[in-house]
Amino acid sequence: MKQRILCSAAVLLCALFGLCGLGEAASKTLPFRQGERLVYRALWGFIPAGEAVIEVLPDAGVGGVRAHHFAMTTTTNSRVDLFYKIRERQDSYADTAMTRTLQYRKKSTGDHPRDVIVSYDWKNRTATYASFGNAEKPVEILPGSFDPLAIFFVIRTHRLEPGDVHEIPITDGKKCIVVKATVGSRETVTIDGTVYDTFPVVPDMERLQGVVPRKGDPSLKIWFTADERQVPVKIQSKVAVGSFVFELISAKY
Asked: What is the pLDDT of residue 214?
């Protein structure tokens, strides 16, 4: 459970984009570029738990198609290592028009080793989940589907407005769902003395995460800056064992 929350701030980490806006996203100048690096500290309640880094790497080729390369690494600190050690890296490859994911990878060398590759077959509209080289049965996916990490960047390609509800199909290779994200009213977030003007977004991720929040208590909330970059500066995830918060402590654009 802790690994799911700490590492998938992808799921965190989340973000969420309407199908009707695909053409618009492709025509706009992207708010991120190669070399961007966002560093977050992780807190489990009031306990420092580790660090997460999200970055934009040089473009790569996937099946002969040029793709944006996003990466996220998550590491627990020595205190948390004593009972739950995490060393994980996720890689997402989305087409340069930001209309769909082409490939997704997750590798962990912590207490629960993983070596996952999700391959997307857009001709047949399926995704195949393979763990340590063992492929499972392909699942059908919806047009414009993204992986849990790519959505961090997809949401940033669209202007947020209070009251908007964005929909985006997401697949982890095991199931494909349409996530609905509601944009709340402006909020101020302060991190280490730096004040951010933000829009909070609450995405409905439970069916993908397998997490059932208490009634009226969202399991995931993300604060994006109310500027042209729309950077996620804070992520909060609530589960049975408590609340995890990721706070932006360093940013390179």
From this structure: 45
